[in-house]
Design a protein that fits this description.
- The complex is a heterodimer of chains A (about 450) and B (about 475).
- With about 450 residues, chain A is α/β, with parallel strands linked by helices.
- Chain A has three domains: about 10-55, no CATH class; about 65-80 and about 345-440, Aspartate Aminotransferase, domain 1; about 80-340, Aspartate Aminotransferase, domain 2 (3-Layer(aba) Sandwich), CATH 3.40.640.10.
- In chain A, about 35% of the residues lie in helices and about 15% in strands.
- Chain A has helices spanning about 10-20, 50-60, 80-85, 90-95, 105-120, 135-145, 165-175, 195-200, 220-230, 240-245, 315-320, 330-370, 395-405, 430-439; strands at about 65-70, 125, 155-160, 180-185, 185, 190, 205-210, 235-240, 260, 275-280, 295-300, 305-310, 375, 385-390, 405, 410, 415-420.
- In chain A, the strands form five sheets. Chain A has a seven-stranded mixed beta sheet with strand order 2-10-9-8-7-3-4, with helices on both faces.
- In chain A, helix 6 (about 135-145) packs parallel to helix 7.
- Chain B has helices at about 30-35, 60-75, 95-100, 120-135, 150-165, 180-190, 205-215, 235-245, 265-270, 280, 340-375, 400-405, 435-450, 455-460, 470-475; strands at about 35-40, 55-60, 140, 170-175, 195, 220-225, 250-255, 275, 295-300, 310-315, 320-325, 390-395, 415, 425-430.
- Chain B is of the alpha/beta class.
- Chain B has a domain at about 95-355: Aspartate Aminotransferase, domain 2, CATH 3.40.640.10.
- Chain B is globular, with a radius of gyration of 25 Å.
- Classes of the chains: A alpha/beta (about 450), B alpha/beta (about 475).
- At the A-B interface, helix 1, helix 2, helix 3, helix 4 and helix 5 of A face strand 1, strand 2, helix 2, helix 3 and helix 4 of B.
């Protein structure tokens, strides 16, 4: 031990290199005043690869073995093996931002294909090649709205029911541009369009709605939401996800100016909340789009080739006047999502999305048969997940379910939320049995 | 000029490299949509009003897709392909074993679990936070920011909250002209006015310029150290004192931390806030642009402002346990969940593998390699002494052209035309992962291009998958999806 296992220098080579530079020792290369020199004692012991792996296996093994019926913005769909094997090819995995497009055509084309699939799913002509996650994408949507002539005002209206993390990230982005974030009421799990219209005025900059909502409700009044936004010179931002968009009406047709979401529901599976910020918008906002865009062009041989484009929007050129501060993004996750979508194909993706409707409805019906539990709480169509009301304390029920091997959300003391995908569908019988015992 | 030069003995000492190139008429590898697409009708139990009529997507079999993406990967260049000395990006080797650890079934969990049922995940996060605090000389660390720029944004938001808490209205963030573009953009996103500091003649912070810029409005000074020229800010202790006396905070951009591993810590220099680029310093793969992670460390007085939730140990018997908590004056959240979890796991595994001595050796070899390479170059390399990177000047040549030509020698070129403090800048960071032989080949590539005439350089590259791409035309006529190609 002592040397980095990933630095290839032999002692002889090190010596010869120091000689070539003309210094006696490696320490002579450091121009650091003694006052701030550090002795190198972090007290971190080096371990062998085998030891590190065993240690992490043991540590992570302390995660309780649970069937996760969890969603609310982070979803576990089955990721085909081919996704791992192709995305892990080193030329993809260890490359970086395509500053030299001629040697990076492969990744650029994959990102162009990712953008194209999002264009197909959203109906909007411009999709970037990733932001961090849905929450930061919503934050970027709000800041975009401040820069376009089509909208004015400083109020951002959001659904009263939304993922807390997303709301809090948005509030941070909003505060930097002096925007306020205000909730509008929901009616039985969907937008209360009358109430929304009442609180909206010309000071509204952006109206945000989701379908599916954080509780899995398919929103049926999006055209009315778009109408409220348009009637107040505000933009309409829709939150959705690529699986749901395979069957839902195109956001562009519903009047959405911007679509955000987490596209990591394709390609990633449960990954501790790691995401893939989806961002698509209208052509007229092209020059205000945050993040990287891949465009098609031509090379000197006359062939079609791909390149990062419209880079004058970005921080490395525009600095404090850039459309966003984002540099490193989620490109590799976008590659994974694209491979996953391509593996499913149109039939597979539509089937997956349809299952998210039919299976979820079926599970809710079965949960509803459990005494002391009512499901779904909202008399709506659901996608992947639904809220359930419990007579007993929902928090206690959730804790007891964990003892039976199931993780569900406890929304408050009266409500659970249950999410089912194909990765957990086989466990539904046992889940209902467990619920009958604990509820 | 023939297509078989350089390489194949064309230039003594230089690498030869022909990238895979699949062609199909007036395109390279056809798009998925051009290979086979299908439109399918959409029929679900949902009302027609909320349902689309049909969906059209590529419809390829798995063998076809496997070939498609394999060919695309061959028309791409990663750290394994050859040297990748992209300045300020630290394109070091990414150990494969960390991928396997991040891919463990027990690592694949939902972040909304009850903390009691995710003790393994919390323990990994706590250990990494602890490692990073020690490495940076910081008191508290958040792992939530999903990239370096997100870390900067977190730091500037903490700055704002700290001054607001003190009833101190401070509107300006100072950023040196040689800083990363993200510094400017992150400060602006947090609502600050950005004041640019000119560099001194020695490429470092100009103390007089700093003195006159500091004042009652100064909220923060953002510094990279070593800076983007690879120079250590020797006056850092004085700089810290000046900023603190003016009532401001000092921010450390961790992009260049690799140089200092085990030899100096931002906390000891007087920095109050820092971010770590784990995809640079701690060897997690760059993934063609991301994901990275940008944890943020702070000194004790700023810990209450860190994003929520944080992880902390719980006192008790038995196995060490952890819980999540909300810091008292938290700025809230900067990521919807816990951050780029898979990236964080890999970074933790890398640090554990190297330990104190391995980390210090990584830094030393990175600095050794940069100095050795700089010594071999015919291009002028102003300033010094360098640490992990240096900025050469292409002089009369166009740095962007030089970069294109270097591609023909089988190496990835450096970052070009930045920082602007060096004319036709070639910002070069070889990292510790390259051996002497590769550095010699890299130097040979630089030197061969330095001797070439303008026509040769301007017509490069010839050996990459694609030839020179007309970026101006691509931007003037944006075609951003396959739908736009028919227009």
């Amino acid at each position: 031990m002592g040397d980095s296992p990933y630095a290839p220098h032999t002692p002889t080579e090190t010596r010869e290199m120091l000689d070539a530079i003309g210094v006696d020792s490696q320490e002579d290369l450091f121009d650091i005043p003694d006052q701030v020199r550090f002795d190198g004692q972090f007290d971190i012991d080096a371990r062998s690869e085998r030891e590190v792996r065993a240690e992490f296996e043991a540590t992570l093994g302390r995660n309780t073995d649970l069937v996760e019926l969890l969603g609310r913005g982070h979803y576990d769909h089955y990721v085909p093996s081919i996704v791992d094997h192709l995305a892990d090819r080193q030329e993809f995995l260890t490359s970086y931002t395509q500053y030299q497009p001629e040697i990076a055509q492969g990744f650029l084309q994959a990102l162009f294909e990712y953008q194209s699939m999002l264009v197909e799913l959203t109906g909007l002509p411009v999709a970037n090649c990733s932001l961090y996650d849905a929450a930061t994408a919503l934050g970027e949507a709000a800041t975009l709205a401040t820069r376009v002539r089509d909208a004015s005002g400083s109020r951002v209206l959001v659904p009263a029911q939304m993922q807390a993390g997303k709301r809090r990230v948005l509030e941070n982005y909003a505060s930097g541009t002096d925007l306020t974030v205000e909730p509008y009421p929901m009616d039985d799990g969907a937008v209360d369009t009358t109430a929304l219209a009442e609180i909206a005025d010309e000071e509204v900059l952006l109206v945000y709605a989701e379908s599916p909502t954080v509780r899995g409700v398919i929103e049926e009044s999006l055209p009315a939401v778009a109408g409220v936004a348009a009637g107040n010179d505000a933009l309409f931002c829709l939150g959705s996800d690529p699986v749901a968009l395979a069957v839902l009406e195109e956001p562009a047709a519903l009047g959405a100016d911007i679509v955000i979401g987490d596209a990591a529901s394709l390609g990633l599976g449960a990954a501790g909340g790691m995401g893939l910020g989806l961002f698509a918008t209208r052509e007229s906002f092209l020059r205000q789009v945050p993040g990287r865009l891949v465009g098609a062009g031509e090379d000197e041989s006359g062939r079609r080739a791909y390149t990062l484009t419209l880079q004058t929007r970005e921080q490395h050129i525009r600095r404090e006047r850039a459309t966003s501060n984002i540099c490193t993004n989620q490109a590799w996750v976008a590659l994974r999502a694209a491979i996953h979508a391509a593996t499913l194909g149109p039939e597979g993706l539509v089937e997956l999305a349809t299952d998210c409707v039919t299976h979820t409805g079926g599970v809710a019906e079965r949960v509803d048969t459990v005494p002391g539990v009512e499901a779904p709480v909202h008399d709506r169509h659901h996608f992947r997940e639904f809220a359930a009301r419990t007579d007993e304390s929902a928090r206690t029920v959730a804790a007891d379910l964990a003892d039976h091997g199931f993780a569900v959300h406890a929304l408050d003391d009266d409500h659970l939320q249950v999410c089912v995908t194909e990765t957990s569908a086989d466990a539904v019988d046992e889940f209902v049995d467990a619920l009958e015992v604990v509820a | 000029m023939s297509d078989d030069e350089p390489g194949n003995g064309g230039t003594p000492g230089a690498n030869g490299y022909d990238q895979a190139r699949y062609t199909d008429g007036d395109r390279y590898e056809p798009l998925l949509s051009e290979k086979r697409s299908r439109e399918v009708d959409v029929e679900t139990p949902l009302p027609d009003a909320v349902t689309r009529d049909s969906l059209e997507l590529p419809a390829l079999s798995e063998p076809e897709l496997s070939r498609h993406y394999t060919r695309l990967s061959q028309m791409n260049y990663g750290v394994e392909s050859g040297p990748f000395p992209l300045g300020s990006c630290t394109m070091k080797y990414n150990p494969s074993f960390t991928e396997d650890i991040a891919g463990l079934p027990d690592a694949a969990i939902h972040p909304d679990r009850d903390p009691e049922t995710m003790q393994g995940t919390l323990a990994v996060l706590a250990q990494l936070s602890d490692y990073l605090a020690k490495i940076g000389g910081m008191d508290g660390v958040t792992l939530q920011p999903p990239a370096g720029a997100a870390g900067e944004y977190t730091g500037t938001m903490i700055t704002r909250a700290y001054h607001e808490e003190n009833g101190d209205d401070r509107s300006e963030v100072l950023v040196p002209d040689s800083a990363h573009g993200t510094n400017f953009a992150s400060a602006a996103l947090a609502g600050f006015d950005v004041v640019e500091l000119p560099s001194g003649d020695d490429g470092r912070v100009d103390i007089d310029a700093l003195e006159s810029a500091l004042g009652d409005d100064t909220a923060l000074l953002m510094l990279t150290n070593p800076n983007t020229l690879g120079l250590f800010e020797r006056d850092i202790v004085d700089i810290a004192r000046m900023v603190h006396e003016a009532g401001g905070l000092l921010y450390y951009d961790g992009a260049n931390l690799n140089a200092l591993l085990g030899r100096a810590r931002p906390g000891d220099m007087g920095f109050d806030i820092m971010h770590y680029n784990v995809h640079k310093t701690f060897a997690t793969p760059h993934g063609g642009g991301g994901p990275g992670a940008g944890p943020v460390g702070v000194v004790e007085k700023l810990e209450p402002f860190l994003p929520a939730p944080r992880v902390r140990p719980v006192d008790g018997e038995g196995e060490p346990a952890h819980e999540l908590f909300e810091p008292e004056q938290t700025i809230g959240k900067v990521h919807g969940f816990l951050g780029n979890w898979q990236v964080l796991v890999k970074a933790g595994a890398y640090i554990a593998r190297l330990g104190d001595e391995g980390l210090a050796d990584a830094g030393a070899k990175a600095v050794l390699n940069a100095n050795y390479l700089a010594e071999q170059l015919d291009y002028e390399v102003p300033f010094g002494p360098f640490h992990h990177e240096f900025v050469a000047s292409a002089g009369e040549q166009d740095a962007a052209d030089v970069a294109k030509r270097m591609l023909d020698y089988g190496v990835h070129p450096p970052t070009t035309k930045w920082p602007e403090t060096v004319e036709e800048a070639l910002m070069t960071e070889p990292t510790e992962g390259e051996n002497r032989r590769t550095l010699d080949q890299l130097a040979a590539a630089f030197n061969a291009v330095a001797d070439e005439d303008e026509t040769t350089v301007a017509s490069a590259p010839r050996r990459t998958a694609a030839r020179r791409i007309d970026q101006v035309d691509a931007a003037r006529n944006p075609r951003l999806s396959w739908h736009a190609l028919d227009e």
